[in-house]
Specification:
Shape: elongated
CATH superfamily of the largest domain: Periplasmic binding protein-like II
Largest sheet: 5 strands, mixed
Strand content: 15-25%
Radius of gyration: 22 Å
Distance between the termini: 57 Å
Order of helices and strands: HHEEEEHEHEEHEEEHHEHEHEHEEEHHH
Number of helices: 13
CATH architecture of the largest domain: 3-Layer(aba) Sandwich
Helix content: 40-55%
Strand order of the largest sheet: 12-11-13-10-14
Length: 300
């Protein structure tokens, strides 16, 4: 009986092991052994990642390529090959969790809810909650959402308060954006109408279909989810309502690989090549951008 029990336990262990993705500690070993690294990208997430004429392009793609260049030096793998893996906005985390993707090149908010699913590199982009409205939205709504201060009070009975109370906001449920929107509404004493949508593309479509006036979401994901063919139908309000760091997602409990990626980014950020890379997509670095990357470059 003991022999049978032991055999059953051993078999169960084998089945469980085969059902789990490669262990976190094995990721860097596998990259070293195979000479291949799997980089995830979203094919229609401009300006961060998209499929160009023959290969992926975008800010996130170039950041990942710079990381790979540094990993070649760190690991002594001059011939390290890149395997690009197309993922969707909705599947991006599960692709990382199952080991299909080693590093997700779409900058994503390093929020607590996202950390529950994946780990993150050093920040590669300054993210945060933004509002999206239709390009034909009223000037009053545009002005109200573009207020200079995120904590500026909106007094009950004021025209702005009345407008916001009559505005329908869309948000993806169970996200940090939903929690923030609920909290802000309570603080300001405004009972705005909030409708939940399944995902970012559904939220943007709700705005176009006039089922919602405003869609709130993470800046980097919003920019990636807007259909390029419909870009002129939206206005992404310049004002950042929250300030969140966006990093490159990777498998949780994967400290060796994350350290290698962070070390690579720490070498890339101070270089002029990175300043040129950033300027290609977002214009020359201003003092705020320089400070952001300086504060997020740890010392050796």
């Amino acid at each position: 009986m003991r022999i049978k029990t032991s055999a059953l336990i051993a078999c169960a262990g084998i089945v469980l092991a085969s059902a789990m993705p490669a262990s976190a500690g094995a990721v860097l070993d596998r990259i070293t052994e195979t000479g291949h690294i799997r980089l995830g990208y979203v094919p229609d997430a401009k300006p961060f990642t998209w499929m160009g004429a023959s290969s992926p392009e975008g800010y996130g793609v170039q950041v990942c390529e710079a990381v790979v260049g540094q990993l070649k030096i760190q690991l002594g793998l001059a011939d390290l090959k890149t395997d690009w893996v197309a993922v969707s906005i909705e599947s991006r985390f599960s692709e990382v969790q199952t080991g299909n993707v080693d590093l997700l090149c779409l900058p994503t908010s390093d929020s607590l809810s996202n950390r529950d699913q994946v780990s993150f590199s050093l920040p590669v982009f300054a993210g945060g909650n933004r509002a999206v409205i239709r390009s034909d939205a009223s000037a009053t709504l545009r002005q109200t959402l573009s207020g200079a201060r995120a904590d500026k009070p909106v007094w009950r009975g004021s025209p702005a308060a009345k407008l916001l109370a009559e505005t329908t906001f869309a948000v993806v449920p169970r996200t940090s954006t939903e929690a923030w929107l609920s909290e802000r509404g309570s603080e300001l004493g405004i009972k705005a109408k909030v409708t939940q949508v399944a995902d970012y593309r559904s939220g943007l479509q709700a705005v176009l279909d006039r089922k919602a006036d405003v869609f709130f979401g993470d800046r980097s994901v919003i920019l990636g989810a807007i259909d390029p063919a419909k870009r002129d139908q939206f206005i992404v309000v310049d004002r950042l309502f929250t300030h969140e760091q966006a990093g490159l997602a990777l498998l949780k409990n994967n400290d060796d690989f994350r350290l290698a990626v962070d070390t690579a980014l720490s070498s890339v950020y101070p270089s002029k090549n990175f300043a040129d890379l950033f300027a290609r997509w977002f214009g020359p670095m201003d003092d705020r951008a320089k400070t952001f990357f300086m504060w997020n470059t740890p010392g050796k």
